[in-house]
Design goal:
Elements: H1 3-28, H2 31-40, H3 43-53, H4 65-82, H5 91-107, H6 116-130, H7 137-150, H8 155-167, H9 175-189, H10 198-216
């Protein structure tokens, strides 16, 4: 058998194995399970899920955008936890998850929906900035904005840009502008497909926070 044929067979087997594992994960944990865990603030469920997702590391092209959304969400959680006083011991773990997330994002660059690569890469830069692994705040904001141009009706992309504006210091950030993006995203999140999307709930929370902060200023 020629080397090219051997490579093709090996790659095919990897993809089939990854698909089987992915289907197994889907059968064990549903979007509703993960959504309910998010509402309970029980991220141990998410940790178990993303840890299994990361077993696909050698065949990461099998992961889809929905799977990356959970990796992104867990990275946001563990990075925030690691930055809290008294929880510095979580920093190595946070760095490991962010590195895994970055690897998956780069592996899927050609297959992700429009705007998602830019959105996720922006998130990587934000996480790395918080962990002092890299310093690309302007690049992160630029990528977030570019994602909205590529996917102007994707609520995931719109709410991500809103989040970027919400947390960015002036003159780059703006609670009023962030609210406008969150409200745009909210319109698209009304579609039934987003019922159990944790990002939809997060978007609602940000709308409320923006309104409260603007009211008090």
């Amino acid at each position: 058998m020629r080397s090219t044929d051997t490579h093709f067979v090996t790659r095919a087997r990897q993809v089939v194995l990854a698909l089987c594992i992915s289907l197994s994960l889907s059968a064990q944990v549903t979007d509703r399970d993960l959504f309910d865990a998010y509402l309970r603030e029980d991220m141990t469920v998410w940790k178990a899920y993303v840890d299994e997702l990361n077993t696909l590391n050698s065949s990461s092209a099998a992961l889809n955008s929905e799977a990356l959304l959970y990796l992104y969400g867990y990275c946001g959680y563990i990075v925030a936890e690691a930055k809290k006083d008294g929880k510095e011991s979580l920093l190595p773990e946070a760095k490991r998850y962010v590195a895994q997330f970055k690897q998956h994002v780069e592996a899927q660059k050609a297959t992700l929906p429009k705007g998602h690569y830019e959105m996720y890469l922006s998130a990587v830069y934000v996480f790395e900035l918080r962990l002092k692994e890299s310093i690309h705040p302007l690049k992160a904001m630029s990528l977030a904005k570019e994602a909205t141009k590529l996917a102007p009706t994707d609520p995931m992309v719109l709410t991500y840009y809103g989040t970027s504006l919400f947390y960015a210091p002036k003159p780059f950030g703006s609670k009023q502008e962030a609210l406008e993006w969150f409200e745009q995203a909210e319109q698209y999140f009304r579609a039934p497909k987003w019922q159990y999307c944790w990002l939809r709930k997060a978007n609602e929370m940000y709308i409320q926070q923006c309104k409260e902060k603007l009211k008090n200023n």
